[in-house]
Design a protein that fits this description.
Helix content: 10-25%
Order of helices and strands: EEHEHHEE
CATH class: Alpha Beta
Bound molecules: FE2/S2 (inorganic) cluster
CATH architecture: Roll
Structural class: alpha+beta
Number of domains: 1
Radius of gyration: 12 Å
CATH superfamily: Beta-grasp domain
C-alpha cells in the first residue's frame, strides 16, 4: 500500500491508502473525488482525468509518453505539471504522491 493525496479544486484534501500498481485515476474514481471524470475508463483517449502533479513530485512522476502528451492537448488549462491520472501508476517511489484536480475537465 502507498499513500496518495488528491487535492480537489475546492481545496478538500483526499488522503488515500492505495494499492501499488493502481492508477491515480482509478483511486480518484473509487473514492468519489470530485472533478475526475475519466470518461474513457483509463485508455488515454479522453483527457478528462487531467491533474496537476504537485511541484515536489514532478521529477519522481516523470514526463508523459508521446500518446499521453498528444491527448493532453485536449485538456483544459494545461500546465507544465499536467498529466493524465490514468497514466500514473502508484509505486513505492510514489509513496506520498500529491496531485491537484483542475478547475474543470475539458
Ligand atoms: S481516463 Fe481517459 S485519458 Fe485518462
Amino acid at each position: 500500500m502507498t499513500k496518495l493525496s488528491i487535492i480537489a479544486f475546492d481545496g478538500t484534501r483526499h488522503e488515500l491508502e492505495v494499492q501499488t500498481g493502481s492508477t491515480v485515476m482509478e483511486n480518484a474514481v473509487r473514492n468519489s473525488v470530485p472533478g475526475i471524470e475519466a470518461e474513457c475508463g483509463g485508455a488515454c483517449a479522453c483527457a478528462t482525468c487531467h491533474v496537476y502533479i504537485d511541484e515536489a513530485w514532478t521529477a519522481a512522476v516523470g514526463a508523459p509518453e508521446a500518446m499521453e502528451e498528444d491527448m493532453l492537448d485536449f485538456a483544459y488549462d494545461v500546465r507544465p505539471t499536467s498529466r493524465l491520472s490514468c497514466q500514473i501508476k502508484m509505486s513505492d517511489a510514489l509513496d506520498g504522491l500529491v496531485v491537484h484536480v483542475p478547475e474543470r475537465q475539458a
